[in-house]
Structures are given as C-alpha cells and as structure tokens.
C-alpha cells in the first residue's frame, strides 16, 4: 500500500477512535448520574472507572463492524457502551487485592484505592448489570429478537464459558508452564470472547444468519490474539508510564505468556501474521471495511 | 380461618417449597457442569454456593405468582433460577472479607473460605452472567419481547438502582442512626427489588399491562418488607444454628434495623400488618392465589 494511503488510513482511525472516546464518555456520563443519597460513592466509583480513560477498543470495533451492515451509529455506540461496561467491571474486579492487586489503572488510582474494596466490588457488579440494562432497552434496538440475542451472546461471552472462565484459567495457571495451545485457549476466553462479541453484535443487529458470520468471527479471533500478543510485548518491554499501569507483572507472577513461550521476535512475527489473516477475512468487502482493516493494522503498533 | 384450613395451607406450602428446592438444585446441576479444564474450581465454587441450600424463597414466589396467570411451571422455574443466580452471586460477594466477612452461609463454609477470594469474586460474577443467559435463552420463553423485558427488569432490580444500590446504602449507613423511612428505603432496594422482581416476572410472562400489575407490586413490596423484619428478628434473637449463619452482626456493626428502631414487639406487629396488607392485594383472586397467601402468612413465622 502506498505510504500516503497508509497515512490517511491511520489519520482516519485516530480521528474515529478520538470521536468514540468522547461519545462513550458522554454515554456513561448520561447513564451514571449520582442520586444524592447513600449511593453517591457507588456512582462516583463507577464514573471514576468508566469515564475518561481507556482505548475504547471494543466500542471502536463495534462501530467499525457496524459500517459493514449499515447499522445506525447510535445503536452501535450503545452496544459498544454495554461491552465497555463489561470490560470496565472486569478491570475493577481484576485490580482487587485478592486478584491482581493493582494500584494504578489508566494512569489513575484503581477503584478500590480511591473508594475502598467493598465499593469496588459493588461498582463492578453495578456496571455488570448496567451492560444488560443497556442491551435490553428498546432504545438500543426496536426489534426484541435482536435485543434478546444481544443479551444472550454477551452473557455467554462474559460468563464462565467466556471472560470469567478465562480469568479463572489464568489464576489456575500461575506458576505453571503452559504451552502455546493452552495459552491461546486461555486468552481466547479471557480477552478474546469479548472482542469477538464486539464484532458479533453488529452481525446480530444486521440479522446475519449464523453461517454468514464466519469471516467476521475469524477476523475477531485473529485480532483478539494479535492484541493480546501486543499487550504481552508491552508488559515485557516494561514502560509503565506509557502503559498507564504496572508492567512486568506477568513475569513477576510466573505467568506464561505468548512472549515468554515464543520470545519477543517470534511473538511479534506471529502478531503480524494474525493481522494479515484478519484482513484476509474482509476480502469480500470494499471501502466500508477500511476502518476494520486499519484497526487490525495499527492496533498492534501501539505502545499502550 | 379454621385451624384445619390453616394446617392444609401450611402443608401445601411446605410441599411446594420442598419440590422447588429439588427443581432449582436440578436446574443448577444441569447448568453448572464442570469442564475439566482450568475452570474446575470456578464451577465447583458456583455449585457449592448455588446447589443444596437456601429457602429458595424467590423461585417459590415466582412459581406461586405464575399460577395466577396460567404460566407453565418449567418457565416459572427457569426465571426463578435466574433470580436465584442473582441472589446467590450477591451472597457470595456479600460474604467476602471486604464486605461482611462471613465464614458460614447456609450452614456451610462460605465460597471464599473454601475456594479463596479470587475464585469467590469470579464465581459471583459468573452466576451474575448466568442469570441473564438463562433469561435470554429461547428455552425460557418463545416470545423475544418477553425475554427482553425479563432481562431489562432484572438488570434494573439487581443493579445500582436496585439491589447493588441498596447494598451500597447499607455500607454507607454503618454507624449512622437511620430513621424508619430511611431503613425502609434502603431495604426496598437491597432486598425488596429482587423480591418484587420475582412477582413482576410472572406479570411480564403473562403480558399484563403496566397498570394491571399494581396489586402484585403491592403484594411483593409488603412481603419484601415483612420478610426483612422477620430476618432482623432472627438476627436479633441470635440463634446462629437455626439461621445457618452468624447472627447478631447487625448490632455488632452498629447497623440500624427495623428491630433496633421499632423494638422487637412493634417490629413483629408491623410484619403482621404488612402480611395482612399483602393478602389484601390478592382479594380479586380465588384459590389460584392460595399459595401466595400461604407464603405471606407463614414466611414470617420461620426461624431461619
């Protein structure tokens, strides 16, 4: 691809990412209004975690994939907000002292550091419920069949057969030497399931039959793993300031990662291969898939 | 009411409660099958908390209210199972050291005592997701509008504007002297919202318009408060063996309860008044409401 085309795609991706960060902040700002009663701290904790931080990768994926099927932007944003609510709840619980015990997240104190552990547990639980409240609201989609399917797929992607199950595998794996296929399986649940849902949800809104979803699932699975490898490389490189969180903690915890198994060079090659595979899945699409292509191409070049 | 009628109603309620305990255990047994991978402990923790314990009051309410609208028992049971999954997740998180720090629940060690705190957080999160997975599954109801409405109402009842919000109010209230109306408001969110949902869900399945739901909401609100007063009386009486959990902890934590504000005698009177009000709301119904009436009458006579 000529250099000027690459540059333009990059600029467009950055502009879209910036716009979505603003829109998701605005959505949470609207949904998380404190009630001026005994729940003030709960709403403050939810706002602290949900507003003004993060790459908003999952909503960006949902908006980008929604372009393929002509889905209205405000719908894609509400679904993206629901996914982000799940992602943020999992970060709050993950950061707890009994889990990863982290003090800093997205360059700010973690929720339990600011509001205490009990409020952090409840803020996570509240964002968890909020995600399903958003999806089941007729404002998200007028077709109840679509709403119900969005809920069912998100519950599966975030529950014991998805994200939460992957987190448990991760805990169980501490100090064990996993091979590449075990790490891949773990990460496909822990981070992959929700990323896959971010692309699956537009397929549900576009009422694609199950068999027509295969290429988009393939795209999502490939970039999910590529992003995880990029994350592992950042953690390995250990620039805490750029990452906005503590780095080097996987090695410290004795956790097997793509980088510890493959080494940084082969891990990077693997990420590039996965990105090319992801883009390959979009071969039937024209310019409407450019944002998804740019996302795949540039997201592994980030340093945080 | 003649003594023999009271006795028969009591026997019928006990038989139905016993049957539902078996059916809910069977449902969770089917849904929570361990995968023989790194998630074994997660499923074991979920099963430990969800199977073989508890009064199953909420599923019992859902089944009893479903009789009013001719809703099939297997549907009522699945919805009751979803509510119970939310209830159990909230108990697991509530028992954590950073929350109420309890070692015993339903006469067994709490989840974090058996499986560790991290697994307890994840087991709660997993049951939370499972509740919505059950409701959005076409097996629960063939009408997607009903499924979507069941999800929306449960998300509201369990999230920051319902149960989780009430739990936060409860934390914020420690050591403060609440008046009767503040305690009522707190308990209406903390325990009342989910009990109300247990009766609202059959109204949704019966496709009752909103205005026709008023008496059932009234019934649920009255018995929700009556049950809470009964709980406070048990905690106050302090028989830990009968309660299956630590008692006297409200006084210990300096928490205002119905009993601390009203005193045990007036609290009991108030509970009886609420029960009579609850039954009054069912005046338009015949024998099909007998189970709901018996539930209201006898549930405050339990000692655990």
UniProtKB/TrEMBL annotation, chains A, B:
Gene3D superfamilies: Farnesyl Diphosphate Synthase. This is Polyprenyl synthetase family protein. It comes from Sphingomonas sediminicola. CDD domains: Trans_IPPS_HT. PROSITE patterns: POLYPRENYL_SYNTHASE_1 (PS00723), POLYPRENYL_SYNTHASE_2 (PS00444). InterPro entries: Isoprenoid_synthase_dom_sf, Polyprenyl_synt, Polyprenyl_synt_CS, Prenyl_diphosphate_synthase. Belongs to the FPP/GGPP synthase family. Coiled coil: none annotated.
């Amino acid at each position: 691809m000529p250099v000027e085309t690459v540059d333009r795609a990059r600029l467009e991706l950055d502009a879209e990412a910036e716009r979505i960060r603003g829109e998701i902040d605005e959505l949470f700002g609207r949904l998380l209004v404190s009630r001026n009663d005994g729940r003030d701290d709960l709403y403050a904790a939810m706002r602290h975690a949900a507003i003004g931080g993060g790459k908003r990768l999952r909503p960006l994926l949902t908006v980008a994939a929604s372009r393929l099927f002509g889905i209205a932007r405000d719908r894609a944003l509400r679904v993206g907000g629901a996914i982000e609510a799940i992602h943020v709840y999992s970060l709050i619980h993950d950061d707890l002292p009994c889990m990863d015990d982290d003090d800093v997240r997205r360059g700010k104190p973690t929720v339990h550091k600011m509001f205490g552990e009990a409020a952090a547990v409840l803020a996570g639980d509240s964002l968890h419920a909020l995600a399903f409240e958003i999806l089941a609201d007729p404002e998200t989609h007028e077709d109840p069949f679509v709403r119900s399917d969005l809920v069912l797929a998100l519950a599966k992607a975030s529950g014991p057969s998805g994200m939460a199950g992957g987190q448990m595998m991760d805990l169980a794996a501490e100090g064990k030497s996993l091979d590449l296929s075990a790490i891949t399986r773990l990460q496909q649940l822990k981070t992959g399931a929700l990323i896959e849902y971010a692309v699956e949800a537009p397929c549900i809104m576009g009422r694609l039959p199950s068999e027509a979803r295969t290429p988009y699932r393939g795209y999502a699975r490939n970039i999910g793993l590529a992003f995880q490898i990029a994350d592992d490389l950042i953690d390995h490189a250990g620039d805490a300031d750029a990452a906005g969180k503590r780095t080097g903690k996987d090695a410290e915890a004795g956790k097997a990662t793509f980088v510890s198994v493959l080494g940084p060079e082969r891990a990077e090659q693997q990420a590039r291969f996965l990105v090319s595979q992801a883009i390959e899945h979009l071969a039937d699409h024209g310019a409407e898939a450019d944002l998804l292509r740019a996302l795949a191409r540039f997201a592994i070049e980030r340093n945080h």
